[in-house]
Design goal:
Blueprint lengths: L2 E7 L5 H9 L2 E8 L2 E9 H9 L4 E6 L3 E10 L6 E8 L5 E11 L3 H4 L3 E4 L3 E7 L7 E4 L8 E3 L10 E2 L6 E6 L4 H10 L19
Parallel strand pairs: 1-4, 2-6, 7-10
Antiparallel strand pairs: 1-3, 2-3, 4-5, 5-6, 7-9, 8-13, 9-12, 11-13
Length: 209
Amino acid sequence: MAELLEVEKREQTGSRASQVLRRAGRVPVVLYGHGENNEHLSVPAKQVEALIRHHSKTVELAGAIKDTALVSDVQWDPLGIEVLHLDLIRVNLKEMVEVTVPIQTHGEAAGSRQGGVLIENTHEVDVRCSAGSIPDSLRLNVTELGLGAHLNASDLELPEGVELITAADTTLVHIEEPKGETDTGEAAITGAEPEVISKGGDKDSGEEG
């Protein structure tokens, strides 16, 4: 679902003008694409926060400009807290686009109940679909995932009309077995102790006076 952004035109551009906008609770935006002139706009920071929170890719512009656009780039402050700038590209909801979509894991992995740890190797994948049907996220069911097992991009639940671009054999998650259990067990059986050899001599060498 497209997020609604209420836009106003910017009369001034540049870093100083952008700082003034942000202090007023608005985020600078540039709209471009489809052979039309670039538009310098601003939107309320609260609407941008909702856009980020909902992982929305497409937006409906209202106010000074009425258009449909795709979020092309988000620029953050050095701490990754505040959005400093948005780039939007005009798009027809029926045209095919390639976008990056986050992954959401569902369920408790069987391996986790056996003491393993669920490791997420990547948090997003690339897909191709129409601009009007970009999913907010893709579901990955990890319930049956056992110790030492993994799930690939091919295991994602893709909505109709969504095509996976990321390689199908890309590992998304795996269950890491508990560390130290094998070594501890062997030590208990053999009664072995770790051997320490000092640099420059063997373990039986005495200290020099």
